[in-house]
């Protein structure tokens, strides 16, 4: 249940169950991109999983849409301190995509069209914790928010949810992605406020 409170500083911020420490609630959907929005024609879209031994599994857009899709309702938390509760998505679970992939690796690097990368441990992509989403709020995902398809890993800060995703690489050792190499936390648990290295 949402509880509205005014706080003391004259700033009106809602305090709500389900909000991690240091976060405030937003009702709009901010756009945060480190560069220009790439436009990816659907006939050039692909998602490729590459194992630590170089084995590749790839889906084109038609093959991807033929996979089992799920509706997901989840809260999202950006490291810049906004959170949005109860967002609704439709996408393909990473459990489905990784089902027939043979790997002994523990880490992944997620890759995007445009060059963005972010590292996520493999176990954080499994057991209904991550999806490649192509709908938001019942509509096709807008390019600014990562359309045609983006990763969502909602239990970690939202920079781990790569927009315009096009693949993931399995790795034996953890390596930093784009923001992690710039000082952001390697894991990014919002409940532990793992914003920056050393948190
Ligand atoms: N490819 C790509 N994915 C990205 C980003 C980016 O710059 N490029 N920004 C990240 C950050 S910091 C956040 S908070 C969310 C923002 O998603 P939104 O723009 O849909 O709110 O996307 C994440 N995924
Ligand atoms: Mo972010």
TrEMBL record:
Residues 35-179 form the Oxidoreductase molybdopterin-binding domain. It holds the Pfam family Oxidored_molyb. This is Molybdopterin-binding protein. It comes from Paractinoplanes ferrugineus.
């Amino acid at each position: 249940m949402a509880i509205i409170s005014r706080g003391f500083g004259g700033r009106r911020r809602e305090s709500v169950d389900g909000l991690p420490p240091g976060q405030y609630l937003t009702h709009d959907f901010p756009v945060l991109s480190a560069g220009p929005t790439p436009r990816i024609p659907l006939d050039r879209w692909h998602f490729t999983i590459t194992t630590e031994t170089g084995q590749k599994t790839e889906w084109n857009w038609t093959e991807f849409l033929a996979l089992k899709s799920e509706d997901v309702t989840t809260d999202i938390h950006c490291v810049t301190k906004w959170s949005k509760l109860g967002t609704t998505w439709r996408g393909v679970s990473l459990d489905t995509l990784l089902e027939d992939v043979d790997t002994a690796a523990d880490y992944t690097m997620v890759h995007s069209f445009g060059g963005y990368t972010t590292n996520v441990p493999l176990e954080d992509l499994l057991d209904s914790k991550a999806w490649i989403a192509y709908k938001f709020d019942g509509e096709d995902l807008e390019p600014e928010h990562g359309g045609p398809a983006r990763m969502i890993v909602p239990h970690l800060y939202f920079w781990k949810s790569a927009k315009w995703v096009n693949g993931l690489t399995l790795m034996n050792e953890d390596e930093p992605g784009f923001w992690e190499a710039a000082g952001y936390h390697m894991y990014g648990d919002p409940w532990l406020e793992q914003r920056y290295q050393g948190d």
